[in-house]
Design brief:
Number of strands: 6
Order of helices and strands: EEEEHHHHHEE
Distance between the termini: 52 Å
Largest sheet: 4 strands, antiparallel
Radius of gyration: 17 Å
Amino acid sequence: MNHSFEVGKTYRDHVGAYKVVAIDLNRLIYVTTDGTEHEGDAELKWRIYSYLLSETGVPQTSRSLQQRSAGGGDFYSNDEVSPIFAHVIKAYGKRHKDFMTHKKIVAAFMEHPEGQLILKRPHDRTNLYWVGVMMAWFSRTFTEGRSDWDSSFERKKIGPAWAYRIRSK
């Protein structure tokens, strides 16, 4: 096999985003954003994906396939880390009424079981550095008005970083 596809991960080709649902030897089974299931040659799809990466330096993005970190390559995607950040903020909000600071969110992500699985993947800097980068991308979606959690959380600047809490009803 000359590909590095992982089941459950989202990738992109010249048509659009797709999520890998199964790999059988060199057969790739994937679902496109419209919900249609397809089957294709895994090596060919990987070459297309790699070519798109080499053209842009990072995977091309859409609303359903958020940008991967420029320095992290395939280390993580915002689609997989954002729900973890949302979960830790919600958990904090069940016990506290104040804003959860950037530092607390980063620490909680690093303790979260799914966060730990992501951080076990190979990467080139410290976990603290990368979780800070991940959190910056999570915050950026709010700034750009693209966050799936805009109606769930409110935020404010505390020091140089954003802090979050559950939005009052």
